[in-house]
Amino acid sequence: MLLFYPCTWSITMAAYNLQAAPLVPLKYIALFGTGAFIMRSAGCTINDMWDRNLDKAVERTKIRPLARGDLTWNQAFGFLALQLSAGLCVLLQLNLYSIVLGAASLPLVTLYPFMKRITYWPQAVLGLTFNWGTMLGWAAVAGAVNWAVCLPLYAGGVCWTLVYDTVYAHQDKTDDVKVDIKSTALLFGDRTVPVLSALSASSMSLVSYAGYLNGQGLPFYAGVGLAGLQLARVLRKTEWDDRASCWKGFVQCGWVGIWIWAGASLDYALSISGLL
């Protein structure tokens, strides 16, 4: 879902901009929902292939099929080939511009699991990967990317990812130190709340700016406002040294994506009904 939500923002905002018929965003939301499920699954496979030896040393991950020895690396590679083939089938339903743009994200998908070995900013690379749909969704609807709108939307999504994946990384920070894995949770440490607060404010500001450039109405900004309140609630309530609390905070960050999509959808629905 965290991969899917940025796609929905972009698809709905593009439909609003073009005043497209309702079947247009519905079609692409269905396609991108399928694609997000497949490609996130592929990303998990790639991650487990990269980390099969590391996973054996961590209590939470040692039961994964590759780490436990239930599957071989070759079997995982074969399964990954099937996943990527299925993802390609979805991608080929789009226009040529979108196909090329979608294919351009594959290096990020492949490299992300390796980044935590060399940088304290793997969450930034994840953000660049997970929010590709802010550009791809628009291209699918409109035939090309409106960079003026999509770049701030993309940047806002990257900031959001840095927030939720840092919350996630806090549950693993003790294990990460043991196996020499890096993360923003370890980098930020005691400064986590002020840094994530700044990133949250940046995220909502950038998404709002994208909405402004797209001529969005009040429902869109109401959705962004509720998303911002959700982020503030997560940062206030999360206990950073408690694994269960970090997991809960991570899950609740997903509501940010829902609220932004809901605001954009209501804005679009009202605009095509002639009420705005």
TrEMBL record:
Membrane topology field: Multi-pass membrane protein
MF terms (GO), sorted A to Z: 4-hydroxybenzoate polyprenyltransferase activity
Record-given protein name: 4-hydroxybenzoate polyprenyltransferase, mitochondrial
PROSITE patterns: UBIA
Described function: Catalyzes the prenylation of para-hydroxybenzoate (PHB) with an all-trans polyprenyl group. Mediates the second step in the final reaction sequence of coenzyme Q (CoQ) biosynthesis, which is the condensation of the polyisoprenoid side chain with PHB, generating the first membrane-bound Q intermediate.
Pathway: Cofactor biosynthesis; ubiquinone biosynthesis
Parts of the chain that traverse the membrane: 30-50, 124-145, 151-171, 218-235
Catalyzed reaction equations: an all-trans-polyprenyl diphosphate + 4-hydroxybenzoate = a 4-hydroxy-3-(all-trans-polyprenyl)benzoate + diphosphate
Gene Ontology BP, a term: ubiquinone biosynthetic process
Family: Belongs to the UbiA prenyltransferase family.
Coiled-coil residue windows: none
Alphabetical list of InterPro entries matching this protein: HB_polyprenyltransferase-like, Prenyltransferase, UbiA_prenyltransferase, UbiA_prenylTrfase_CS, UbiA_sf
Annotated EC: 2.5.1.39
Assigned keywords, A-Z: Isoprene biosynthesis, Membrane, Mitochondrion, Mitochondrion inner membrane, Transferase, Transmembrane, Transmembrane helix, Ubiquinone biosynthesis
Record flagged with keyword Transmembrane: yes
Lineage, opening ranks: Eukaryota, Fungi, Dikarya, Basidiomycota, Agaricomycotina
Organism: Tulasnella calospora MUT 4182
Entry GO CC: mitochondrial inner membrane
